[in-house]
Each structure stands twice: as structure tokens, then as C-alpha cells.
Specification:
Order of helices and strands: HHHHHHEEHHH
Shape: globular
Strand content: under 5%
Strand order of the largest sheet: 1-2
Distance between the termini: 52 Å
Largest sheet: 2 strands, antiparallel
Structural class: mainly alpha
Number of strands: 2
């Protein structure tokens, strides 16, 4: 019996049992395996985004060049935050992004060039930039790689998602944002918040380089911004009339589906930790 014949819950469980140890190994082994892991995930998620956008008639985003720009952004961020090259190297992005306009100038068959330029930039901003910011988060406290903050954020995200899933499945009655996501409920949101707060307390006992109140605050940010991230992706998918961004991860859809909560959470987490 294949995975497709199992319930969504069992597909989620099996996928987690296989994927989570690999993720944690890559995050913990060293900063280069961390880079390789999220660089790969970022590339796959960005390709998913461009594929979805390109599924609508007339949409021709620069899939490979946009993804290439995302890779360069991610690599620059890593080596700059690691202290191997200077911040002035970010200027490399200026001509790289400007070339997008030059490429479209020669695409004579593109009937909507500026719309597709916008979609190309959106793939970089919406997908590649948050994954690059994840690297900023990993190096921000001491200038050296800190796997604990990355693992803590993922644990909080998973706790929130799991709590929301079970609370919404068994107790969900009051719709949260029916126009965009009919299945989401306030009960699911509260279940996700409760799970995240429990996880934040447990995490704070082991990852002590951040204060207890900081972990609670990060948990709240992940629940709130992560929920909005999920709603934003749902709005995007409804606009092109699909259910999942892909079928890459059994029970979870694609990489965009799995990491949508992280995409909009990371900018807020970094801002919070920088300001407070």
C-alpha cells in the first residue's frame, strides 16, 4: 500500500519521521550543512512558486534567472554574516536584478513583460529573501553560527502547526478567515498558540542563550505571522485555483506549503531580536 492510500495524518507522520532527523542533522552538524539544506529548500520553493505563477496563461516569469538571483542572495548573505566577505558585496545584487529588465527586453513573445518582471521579483522577495534572512538569524547574536535559534524556531513552527491541526480538526467551528481558507478556525489558532507556548517554555530550558520571555515572544510571532503566511499562500493558491503548491512532501503538499509560515515569520523575528 502506497503513501497516497494512507490518511493525511499518517502521511504527515511518516514524512515527519523521515524528514525531521535529516533536517536536524544538517542544522546541527555545521554551518555549511545548514547552508546546503536551506539553499536547496529555498531553490525548490522558488521553483515551485514560478511554476505555479507560470501555470496561468500569459505568465512567463524568468524562472531560472530569478532562482539564480535567489541563490546569489542566499550565498552572499551567508558569507557576509560569517565574516568571510564584506557588506559591500551586496552591491553585486544591483546589476544582477537590473538584468531582469534587460532580459525581458529581448523576449518578443512575452505579451505582459512588466507583469512577468513583477512576478520574477516577487519570487525573489517572497521566497528567496526570507531564506536568506534565516542565515542572518543564525549568526546574529555572537557573529558565529548558532544552531539553537534555528532549531528553536522550527520546533515552535512545528508545535504551532500540530496544535492548530489537531485543535482545528476536533474542535474547529468558528471560521478564522473563511473567504481565503474555509478550513481554518479560531479554535485551531488557539490550539496552535497553546502548543507553541508549551514548546517555548520547554525550549527555553535547553536553549538558554535566549531568555524565556524571548522564546515566548518568538512563539507568538511565529503563530501570528505564520498564520498570516499560511493565509497569504492560501490566497495565492486560490487565485490560481489549486489546493497544494506541489505534491513533493506526502501529507504536506510542497515546500511552499510546508515553509509558508516561516517565510513571513523570519523578518518579524529578526526585527524583534534586533530592537529588543
Amino acid at each position: 500500500m502506497g503513501l497516497s492510500n494512507l490518511s493525511n495524518l499518517w502521511q504527515r507522520v511518516i514524512a515527519a519521521v523521515i524528514a525531521v532527523p535529516f533536517l536536524l542533522f544538517c542544522i546541527n552538524f555545521n554551518d555549511y550543512t545548514f547552508l546546503g539544506l536551506f539553499l536547496l529548500i529555498g531553490v525548490l520553493a522558488q521553483l515551485e512558486f514560478y511554476k505555479l505563477v507560470g501555470s496561468l496563461e500569459g505568465n512567463l516569469p524568468l524562472t531560472f534567472y530569478g532562482t539564480f538571483c535567489g541563490v546569489i542572495l542566499h550565498l552572499l548573505t551567508f558569507f557576509i554574516e560569517k565574516g568571510m566577505i564584506g557588506y559591500h558585496n551586496y552591491y553585486i545584487l544591483s546589476p544582477l536584478l537590473t538584468i531582469i529588465f534587460f532580459i525581458k527586453l529581448y523576449k518578443s513573445k512575452d505579451g505582459k513583460p512588466f507583469q512577468n518582471i513583477a512576478f520574477t521579483f516577487l519570487g525573489i522577495i517572497y521566497v528567496a529573501l526570507p531564506f536568506a534572512l534565516l542565515t542572518v538569524l543564525a549568526f546574529m547574536r555572537s557573529g558565529t553560527y548558532d544552531s539553537n535559534i534555528i532549531m528553536g524556531c522550527l520546533f515552535l513552527l512545528w508545535a504551532s502547526d500540530s496544535g492548530a491541526y489537531f485543535a482545528g480538526t476536533y474542535f474547529g467551528k468558528t471560521k478564522l478567515f473563511e473567504r481565503v481558507s474555509p478550513k481554518k478556525s479560531w479554535e485551531g489558532l488557539m490550539g496552535g498558540l497553546l502548543s507553541a507556548m508549551i514548546a517555548a517554555y520547554i525550549i527555553s530550558r535547553y536553549f538558554t542563550n535566549y531568555e524565556v520571555w524571548e522564546w515566548f515572544a518568538i512563539g507568538v510571532i511565529i503563530v501570528v505571522a505564520g498564520t498570516y503566511g499560511d493565509l497569504v499562500e492560501s490566497l495565492f493558491k486560490r487565485s490560481i485555483n489549486i489546493k497544494d503548491s506541489a505534491n513533493t512532501i506526502p501529507g504536506h503538499g510542497g515546500f511552499l506549503d510546508r515553509f509558508d509560515g516561516l517565510l513571513l515569520s523570519i523578518p518579524f523575528i529578526i526585527t524583534f531580536l534586533k530592537l529588543f
